Amino acid sequence: MRPTQIYYEPNIEQYTLGKELKEKFSDIPWIPIENHNNIEELRSKENSEFRNLKQLLIIGTRKTHKYVENHKVSDYLVPYTSSGCTAMCLYCYLVCNYNKCSYLRLFVNREQMMDRLIRYSTRSDRELTFEIGSNSDLILENEVTGNLPWTIDNFTKCKKGSITFPSKFSMVDPLLPLNHQGRVIFRMSVNPEEVIRNIELGTSSLDKRIEAINKMAEAGYKVGILVAPVIMVDNWKAIYSQLFDRLEAELSEKMKKQMFIEVIFMTYSFVHRKINAEAFPESIELFDQEKMTGRGMGKYCYRNTLRSEGEIFIHDELERRFGPGRILYIC
Ligand code: SF4
């Protein structure tokens, strides 16, 4: 990824990663800012400039480090080395938090975040799992920072706990030779190819994602599949069945033996509609009043009857191919 411009907090140069990034992108314009959370000139841009905003890189330090309890694959959601992303999934959950400023932000004080993570993990009286990728896509971020090998090497020096992160990207090769000790849980998000092409703009293809899953399983990582988000477009049953056929045919035996599955249905919002209409006027309209509840300025989700039908369908289709007990949750 080559950003068009970099906005940065000047103190990043006190950090090793900050210095490295300054060097790596020395040919790109750098614009100093006071605080990565509030860049007025970017906040005031039109929604139609969303694509251009996504080509920026923002670099600063993370100031808030509050862990939030979680009860799915992990015990805690951990704010880590980035937020936002360069891709443009039309439903991206980060748009709810950051609006059109959901561009990639990097936080260079990774040593501080890692120290805290290790302290949390070692002082617990049980093995904890930490979700470190809930605010961004760490496989994508790794292309810019190289943070994932650094993270895995450092986290596994403490002998307790696990880390996990999801991705829609396939660039896993730098992770394959690492000594992860079986304490890293990788979760690949999948969707039918036409959903990826038309809705998950700028992410890896299904072919590449399947290849990456098999590589990670082969390298001994714990690997899960995230069917997320399920999007109930007109032919949803047919395309999700085809997706599961492909997974059944193309995932390696090693992967299929150990895999777990999470299923998440899409939620959407007024903010998404507004940005998408102005930034991607040609794109598919994901809001469907017949199918969704919620109106006005709020969030939208699938109506209960449709949603129940979807849950049963996805559950049965997955169980038929991959056996019982694989699905951790459907939400
Ligand atoms: Fe958002 Fe993830 Fe898509 Fe990036 S890859 S735009 S973080 S949903």
Automatic annotation (TrEMBL):
Which superkingdom does the taxonomy of this entry point to?
Bacteria
Q: Name one GO molecular function term.
A: DNA photolyase activity
Task: Name the UniProt key words of this record, in alphabetical order.
Answer: Lyase
InterPro entries per the UniProt record, alphabetical? SPL
Q: So which residues are the signal peptide here? A: none
Q: What is this protein called?
A: Spore photoproduct lyase
- Name a Pfam family for this protein: SPL
* GO cellular component terms, semicolon-separated: endospore-forming forespore
Can you name the source organism?
Anaerosporobacter mobilis DSM 15930
